[in-house]
Amino acid sequence: MKLIPFVTKELEKVFSKSTMLVKLYSAFYKNIVKKEVKLAKINNNDSILFIGGGSIPCTALQIASMTGANVKIIDVDPVAVERANKIISKLNLSHSVKVQLTSGQNINAHDFSVIHIARQAMPHDEIIENITKKLSRDARILLRSNLSCFEKLNKIHVNNCKCIYIRQIKQGLLGLKSTFMLTIKKNRSSESEIKKGNSYTDGFKPNVASNMVS
User: How does strand 177-186 pair with strand 47-51?
Assistant: First the structure.
């Protein structure tokens, strides 16, 4: 397991026991989530799958609060699922946010229009492989990753799908972490439909070209 995702996962378990720490932790992600919602144009008609919610699923909760969309969170850690459910209940969001114990490699994502993949949800290539295999509709995938990990996704065989658009939000001054949005079109076979992606950097100059999965 990568060090940063592991540390994030364990910190969330500790912070989830304190209401004050949960609020502080959630505040760190608020601006990032606003950019992701804008980038993917999420609204209350979307059905959202959040993979790797952890003990404090602050991104999923903020998306639900900002947009009014229904959100399903999954995680492979039973302790994280239990603690996430407690936080959701305290916030009175149980009607719109559900949590399930399962993995991104096994979940059936066919009913979802937006899939958000956390950085600590691993391995990204296997998760995307499973998602695209089971999609029954066009979808937007938001992937939190660093550039080196994202570049490896070019090697994935995306099942009967075309990624026609990729945009990037850089997180922080150094831009070491990013959110990549992949717009997936199901059952497209024409190469002419594939477009080169762009970068949305919120004032930062892109230092790399966006990549394309096909």
Answer: unpaired
